[in-house]
Specification:
Layout lengths: L1 E7 L9 E7 L6 E2 L4 E6 L4 E5 L4 E6 L6 E3 L3 E8 L1 H13 L12 H10 L7
Length: 124
């Protein structure tokens, strides 16, 4: 089951109450991995990269570049998957490295469609 979570501006320091979005490192629709930097923000003291809190897809960017946001404000929406769906995605990725000599070979196009549709391959 898919769920959506908000990526929020974390507390960047004791006296920091806001930051400005400098650059988005990912685009809407991009896959992001746990702790992968997805945007850069700037405060009066330092620039920081904000990492993804979970693995998923960047569904919606809520704050454009050059906008100032308060600590705790939502920056983007991340679509994440349940553990079962992540295991399925891992299985699809594993099958993509199977040799073409095997009967259970799946083409890259089929694997891509399976990932997008969250269909697990089932082999005996």
């Amino acid at each position: 089951m898919k769920k959506e979570i908000f990526i929020q501006l974390p507390k960047l320091g004791e006296s920091i109450v806001s930051a400005t979005v400098v650059k988005w490192l990912k685009n809407e629709g991009d896959e992001v991995f746990l702790d992968e930097p997805i945007l850069e923000v700037s405060t009066d003291k330092v620039n920081s990269e904000i990492p993804a809190p979970e693995k998923g897809f960047l569904k919606k960017i809520l704050v454009p570049v050059d906008s100032e946001v308060d600590v705790g404000a939502p920056l983007a929406v991340l679509e994440v998957f349940s553990k079962n769906e992540q295991n399925c995605a891992n299985e699809v990725m594993t099958k993509s490295s199977v040799s073409q000599d095997r009967d259970d070979f799946l083409s890259p196009a089929v694997l891509s469609l399976m990932r997008e549709s969250n269909i697990c391959p089932s082999y005996a």
